[in-house]
Amino acid sequence: MCFIISPMKQTSVQYTLDTLDTLAKITRCRLQRIKTMGLLFFLLCVACGNAAAETRLKLGIERLPEYREVFAGKRVGLITNQTGIDAEGTPSAVLLSRAAQLTVLFSPEHGIQGNEREGASIGHSTDPRTGLPVYSLYGNTKRPTPEMLKDIDVLCFDIQDVGARFYTYISTMAYSMEECARHKKRFVVFDRPNPIGGSVEGNMLELEYRSFTGYFPIVQRHGMTVGELALLFNTEYGIRCDLTVIPMTGWNREIYFDELPLIWAPPSPNIPSPQTALVYAGVCLFEGTNLSVGRGTTMPFQYLGAPYIDAYRLADQLNRLGLDGVRFLPAFFTPSLSLYTGQLCGGVQIAVTDRCNFAPVKTAIAMFYELKRLYPDTFTINNAGKKYCGLHLLTGCTQLTDPSQTAQDYFTRIEKETKQFSGIRKKYLLY
Predict the structure, then answer these.
(1) CA distances from 96 to 133, 184, 185 (A)
(2) Does 54 reside within a domain?
């Protein structure tokens, strides 16, 4: 039996063979492409991993090995406290003593261990961890004296700020920079994050009302790191010291502290959390009034009240203002220290619901005017008869005590001066 293959069938067979060959070639090509893409993906992953490694968060103090030449052959002093730690919790004083000739420490308000109350005068001491002498910059003097500086060549600063103008650590830094300029000492800042991000809000401090709680004309919520502030103070406000800022890597100003792989060491007894720091940037102005800001409670600066306050009425009225990113809950608390110690206070808990839209300064101003409206006879300003009362020093102006000014007038000022300060600070931003 023989088989006869017709021309048509022969063509079909040949076509089939050609097709199979083509498919084979396509398959080989696709496999090669897959291999190539796989290799590229692998290389991309490696590159991304390397980039991530290079850009991971490093605090200024953690970059000390890269800046050894700054300290080579120099006697070094360090302004620090319990917040001066690396990501593992090792004190900056220990790290610096391993890399340089660290001879003396300096402490700010609240002391080297951060346990002293606000405003408490602090004497000199010895650091229990390193055995080094500690000069207090919140006792008989708030500035390093010539005697304190005579045995050092470089003075460093490594403290976690909270992001508010009236928090005194940045004044300690400014005072120390001025003394270093005066006595020809280098000043070094190990940079740290602003724990409440990079948003800017508030009015500029008027120089007439400068004090240790507000030394230079910046806004209440400045949105800068201590390193950036040092650059601004040094150039914009004429300190002109020999300044070195050791910057961080891997941080940007959209990041809040609780999003970082860092340990929060409370900068002072009444700032137990980064959330407290955010509210503090506004609520602190009530320290200039006869309201308790919750010192001596579990929620300092998030509680606000007094024995004469109707908690339910105040919460209802504040919520009706419709302020962004915040709700007010009726609260009852008994402070264990400071104003109204041992007395039951009615008031509110300031509950931040959306921190990206929460405006702490505007919120505090709105609360101030509402309290004036609700309690015209009982809500008062401390030392109101004095030109330089606490409220003036905290706000850096007299607008809140001017009866002709409304909340909207203050909001207009905040908007204008926030924009003004944003223009000034942009020259000094590192991140």
Answers:
(1) 15, 21, 18
(2) no
